[in-house]
Amino acid sequence: MNKLILLPSDVPATGKSTLARCLSRYLDLHDVPHRCLAVGEDTASDQDIEFTHLQPQRLLSLFDTASVVILDLATGCASPFARRFEAGDWAGLIAQHDISLTVVLPVTAEPDSFEPVLEAVETYADGAEYVVAHLLSGCYDSEDRDWDRSYAARVMDMFETTELYVPEAGASLEAELHMLHLDLADAVATHSEEPLLANWLQNVLAQVDGVRRPLFGDALQPTSIRRPLPGKRARQTRVAA
Is residue 22 a part of any domain in this protein? Predict the structure, then answer.
């Protein structure tokens, strides 16, 4: 079965693009044919799609050469996409074409980032698998408690949601990328091999590896795994508060 992965959030600076490109790097490592596209109002790259052009047949055509399609919905596009998804019965359409849906929801220490979780559930309900991606920062313990006591977390518990923990990039890596005039998402996409980036990415990919089944489903078959993840595997369990 093919897999459609959505990253919907209309809250800016939640790390959607960085996370989408990390998922793409993981699939590259495992030789899985995939497409990773940004969906926005105005795009210039042939790796992106203008929102108005994302019609059902265009979406289905992406699977002609890919078993996984990752759609990074730009800020401001998540809600319109959800309305189009519901109005056009896209859930039934993708099911008819043997495509399953995973919704990846990045959250940060800011409670505002929890709201898109509830909006996603209203649209995709039990027709999707959910992965909550925690974009960690130096105040990890505090943001963990904020999430755990939130209404969004209780709703996610009902859907047996998988949680992914994305380590903080850190000031040293951010300073290094600033000198190179790159942001984190672009550095991941261009396969930049600066040592600090390589170490951070190694840890992220190890976390992705731990939740590969809910993320990619049957699209990631054991026979497709040809190359090991670089370096040591990071811990998958949460740090105790």
Answer: yes
